[in-house]
Amino acid sequence: MAADVEAVHALRQGGASLDPQADPEALTSQIRAAADRIGFESPVEAATLSKRRLVELPLLERGQGTKIEAYHSAASRTLREGALVVDSVGSDGTRNVELQRRAPETGLVRVTLSARVRLRADGTTWLDDFGWPGEPARPVHTFTGATEDFLAQARADLRQENIPLDRVLLLLLGATLKEAHRPGTDTQQIQIAEAIVARRGELNVYIRQAEDYALASGGQGWYAACLYRSGLENLFENFLGSAAFSLVDMEEIEDIDDELRDRLPGSTGADRAAIPDGTPIQHWWWEAAFA
Q1: Is residue 136 part of a domain?
Q2: What are the strands, taking DSSP E only, across 31-140?
Q3: Which of 106, 131, 156 lies at the terminal end of a domain, its last residue?
Q4: For site-directed labelling of 124, which of 16, 65, 117, 252 has its Cα 20 to 30 A away?
Q5: pTM
Q6: 102 phi and psi, to 5 degrees?
Q7: Which of 183, 282, 166, 278 is nearest to 224 (CA)?
Q8: What are the phi and psi torsion angles at 35 (to 5°)?
Q9: What is the mean pLDDT of residues 248-263?
Q10: Domain of 40?
């Protein structure tokens, strides 16, 4: 952790000084101008979030230097290019602002990134959060294209070891969202299953990430928790079938589901408008947030 904190310090970001009384348009301009200087107040938090939430960035934005550099570069870009979507003042005079931008994951998928900024009454400004929106009012991911397009891209990605499995599972979910039945031909499903088996280690990493998101699902992490759980369910049901039982410890999946059942009801910021169109009804976790 010490090396990571040192890497955060090397970014030379800190609390910028902005005008907390500025009107929304003027404040947005100030944030854009100071984007490269606005960082997290806690270097430890900055380092932790860089590693935990890097997977939320489009693949092309993850490779901009180290993980810490890539995460903060994407955050700065969001502050510089994003649209103002939230502007509120707390009882203590703190002004809370959120900017969002849409970024392409592939030609088939776009993702919304959110940067939340906190301005104290004295004007000191810090980055509060960055990644997928914590309280999305629309789908964070939008899927555009035909089922065959998603399957073709997923199969191409699986042949390239430098493309992480989380993007593949996102594409496979996109394929399912476009179909009322199991997507693809038997041959395509077998090819995908064989490629997933060859990347078993990455699948375990994805499951651990799903566990982390499930543990945070009672707060503003409900969307990420549900998306990752849907990614797994779609993989098991539509592509791996019975092979999933030899690849995955299903007790881990049951543990994830137990966490979701316990934590999702009443989740902060849950909004049905953010559920991806076409989500299968058996993916009960999405509706659990509204119980």
Answers
A1: no
A2: 83-89, 95-104, 109-119, 124-131
A3: 131
A4: 65
A5: 0.94
A6: -95, 135
A7: 166
A8: -55, -40
A9: 96
A10: 2-131
